[in-house]
Write a structure and sequence with these properties.
It is globular, with a radius of gyration of 17 Å. The chain is built from seven helices and twelve strands. The chain is α/β, with parallel strands linked by helices. Helices cover about 25% and strands about 25% of the residues. The chain starts with a helix and ends in a 12-residue tail after the last strand.
């Protein structure tokens, strides 16, 4: 499988210079060279310079080099989670799309297994290991959903709805293009999206064999009350 033509990865970015390079390198290491789409919300740090360091120069032959790939950078104004994802989805060319947080580092994934799972499930999301300034944090509150057991249509008693998380999730691209995210929501666009899919009798999978380290950021909603 030529992954460059099969897989696209969307990263949302807002001043992610500390982790975005690690995120992209982990994609190369665990999946291979594939299309990277960065949706940037007016970053003022070195994030985009770091992203560009991974970009393939079409004038040069990088066919044997595993450090460069096709990079698309999209700038948006009036940020919302759904708006940024939809902007990326519209530019995707791969058959499959991975959405990953720019401050996550991919540790584990069996890409061929996940592709097979997408023949049965509308989407697949993975395990997250919360890391606060280098320290792994006990899985309380939202993190308690990320167990070591696979689960179909995970339901959250904490939120009283089905639970899904876009920090690491994979979809068939055609599904996303025909089912875009709600651009009016200020958070949890992933939960609203998956609950709408379950209403349509669709199934989704939580697979802990997909795993990321989810690193702390000052403005991350996921971290409120934990650090």
């Amino acid at each position: 499988m030529k992954l460059l033509n099969k897989i696209s990865v969307i990263l949302r970015c807002k001043n992610e210079e500390q982790w975005i390079g690690h995120a992209i390198q982990s994609i190369f290491d665990k999946i291979g060279i594939c299309e990277i789409i960065v949706v940037d919300d007016n970053s003022t740090d070195e994030s985009i310079s770091i992203v560009k360091s991974f970009a393939q120069d079409p004038k040069l032959n990088f066919s044997k080099d595993n450090n460069y790939t096709k990079i698309k950078i999209i700038n948006i104004n009036g940020y919302s989670p759904g708006k940024s994802l939809n902007a990326g989805i519209k530019k995707v060319t791969g058959k499959y799309t991975i959405i990953m947080s720019a401050h996550c580092v991919l540790k584990k994934i069996d890409i061929n297994k996940t592709i097979k799972d997408l023949d049965k499930f509308i989407a697949v999301f993975g395990n997250q290991i919360p890391v606060w300034k280098g320290k792994k944090i006990k899985k309380r509150y939202i993190w308690s959903h990320f167990t070591n057991k696979p689960e179909i249509n995970m339901y959250s008693n904490l939120e009283e709805r089905y639970f899904f998380h876009n920090a690491i999730a994979m979809y068939k691209t055609k599904i996303l293009k025909s089912n875009l995210f709600d651009e009016y929501l200020t958070s949890k666009e992933d939960r609203y999206w998956i609950n709408n899919q379950v209403k349509k009798k669709k199934k989704f999978l939580y697979d802990p064999a997909i795993e990321v380290d989810h690193h702390y950021t000052n403005n991350g909603n996921t971290w409120k009350g934990l650090a």
